[in-house]
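Lecture 7, part 2: worked example. A protein chain together with adenosine monophosphate.
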Amino acid sequence: MKRLIFLGPPGAGKGTQAKILSDTYQIPHISTGDILRAAVKQQTPLGQKAQDYMDRGELVPDNLILDLIKERLAQPDANQGWILDGFPRNVSQAAFLETLLTELDLAPDNVLNLEVPDDVLVERLLARKRKDDNEDTIRRRLEIYHKDTVPVISFYDNRDMLKVVKGHAPMESVTASLKKIIEQ
Ligand code: AMP
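Predicted complex, written out as structure tokens:
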């Protein structure tokens, strides 16, 4: 049973690493970004509400995200553990998750922070060519990351739960570093 939280800036490789480890440990990869992109594509009510925020590189309001993550963690496949990628994105989401997991009598096994310098991130994001990967939006997403998401790192560090992995390394060696921490 593994319950993992991935932190790190946009472009750090969270999604790539989460997919690999989801296969390795046979646990669902829960990416709020993927869930939101699917909702936008299908033009569900959630997708319609989220679209503008995503296109601008802003965070989608918490009231659209919190129920979504609560319901996702209640799905049967999440009994085996999970990897959260892209959530929590601010301190209020982290506090919500802490309360939810306490209610469920669960705790995360690892909170992993993938560290990558900003200039490398911009390069990687520009190469990715996703709809929200144009230069203005990238800059906005990095600003929001520093303002709203960096405090989440301290949230977990204050609880002695944080592990840092350098994400600016070949993909395989980042995977190996993550596994070493997870399996120790
Ligand atoms: P990501 O794929 O994680 O980079 O997310 C893409 C976009 O989806 C972000 O720029 C936000 O607009 C939105 N998003 C994803 N996860 C969250 C979250 N936990 N809270 C708010 N917005 C989110």
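The mean pLDDT is 96. Helices lie at 14-25, 32-41, 45-56, 62-73, 91-103, 118-128, 135-158, 171-182. Keep this in mind for problem set question 3.
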